[in-house]
Amino acid sequence: MASGMNRREFLQTSAAGVAGAAMAGSLGAAPPKPRIVVARGGGAPDADEAALKRMKAALDKWGGFPKLIKGKRVLVKLNATDGGFRDANTSTQATGALVKLCKDCAPKSITIIGQEWGGWRAKRKGMPTLGQLLKSLDVPVKHLARYWSKGSEKDYKLIENVPTWHELMVAKDIFDDDAVLLNLPRLKTHPHCVFTCCIKNTIGLTRRMYGFHKVDERTEVKSRYNPAASDGWHVFPKKLAHAFKHGAGKAIALNIVDANEANYGWRGPGKQRIATFPTGVVMVGTDALALDTYGCKLLGDNINKKQPGLYPEPLGDWAKGDSDYFKFNKSKQNYLKVAADLGVGTADLAKVDIQEVSA
Fold first, then answer.
1. Phi, psi at 12, each rounded to 5°
2. Which of 134, 180, 213, 292 is buried deepest, with most CB atoms within 10 A?
């Protein structure tokens, strides 16, 4: 007190100084890196037991999964798009593993949710279909109504003031307080936009699925059963990024990438017919863009081993080149890069904490 301050003045000044220092420290500190977990090993990629080991290892490393699930209404978004090719959909191995691990955490319920297109019946020799698996596990599917169905609005919530969208409506169940949304996409290439994984998988939670490549999604498409027949592929990257950022992406508790057997050549393009290659990998994280970037690189590294330059870099130019993937890319843009520019997540893997774990 030699300066002449009384006790109250000293305490007030000290408190202000400490608060100011704390605020300056928090403002000056770098934000924490987004984190993804990559689990490998555990056995053959197409084996149920191995898929379960990998997923458990990934979730254990991530931490907090039992607390996230316990007592909650779990909603799972699969990819069950293709009725003709089982390997174009989320695998039964990854689906069964996630359902079992969820049940071990005592959820209130588990439901598969989304608009899908026949993948429930797609076959693979010696294995159940997705529909048969879910029935055996007593897990129901909530098929969200198509936009042309009378009263379909009741399944969706209107998200207002979304850039590039006139009317974005997203599954209302995923926003309930007791709901936990898990995104379980298949890692695969795509015939019309090069790549698909976490971000694009959420299209199936949107009422107007074709709206992603329509300038005005409220207008009718040329064919309700052909998503490619559209006038707006040039707006697709921005519409996808904004729909994810302002819609379904806000509700996702965790993305879990089914990359046990990565898929390439789904429905083409060109000579690139459907096939898989074994990776024995499952990935987990909350930053969908970081996972997509890692997954796209994983695809490219494997595809380009056999045919160099066939598949593009995750943040490269997806419009120029002789590869069918470039030629058939309808938007002529890299939607991962657009999503990064619009703040959907982190695409620079140097800024991502990538944690590997062995199963």
1. -65, -45
2. 292
pTM of the model: 0.90
Asked if omega into 269 is within 30° of 0 (cis), the reply is: yes
Kindly report the length of the chain. Answer: 359
Give me the pLDDT at residue 227, please. 62
Q: What is the tally of helices (H) and strands (E) in the chain? A: 10, 12
Q: How far is CA 151 from the centre of its chain?
A: 28
Q: Closest Cα to residue 302, out of 324, 326, 276?
A: 276
* 105 pLDDT more than 70: yes
Q: How confident is the model at residue 99 (pLDDT cuts 50, 70, 90)?
A: very high
The dihedral sign for the CA sequence 35, 318, 258, 244: positive
Q: What angle do CA 183, 189, 192 make, to 5 degrees?
A: 105
The alpha helices in the chain, defined as continuous H runs, are: 7-28, 48-62, 65-69, 92-103, 130-136, 198-201, 236-246, 288-306, 324-327, 335-341
- Tell me the C-alpha distance between 168 and 218, whole Å: 10
Give the pairing type, strands 141-143 and 109-114. parallel
Residue 24 has which token pair?
Answer: 């300056």
Query: Of 35, 67, 58, which is closest to residue 257 (Cα–Cα)?
Result: 58
Q: Which two tokens stand for residue 333?
A: 């843009």
Six token digits for residue 126? 């010696």
295 to 150, 173, 309, 350: CA distances (angstroms): 38, 28, 17, 15
Residues 6+ apart with CB under 8 A from 325: 189, 194, 269, 272, 310, 311, 312, 318
Task: Give residue-wise pLDDT tens across range 15-44.
Answer: 444 444 444 444 556 668 899 999 999 999
> Do 281 and 293 form a contact (C-beta atoms < 8 A)?
no
| Domains of the chain in sequence order | 36-358 (3.40.50.11440)
Question: What are the backbone angles phi and psi of residue 33, rounded to the nearest 5°?
Answer: -70, 140
Beta bridge partners of 206: 170
Count how many Cα atoms sit within 13 Å of the Cα of residue 68 in the half-sphere of its side chain: 17
Q: Is the pLDDT of residue 275 over 70?
A: yes
Rounded Cα–Cα distance for residues 279 and 302 (Å)? 9
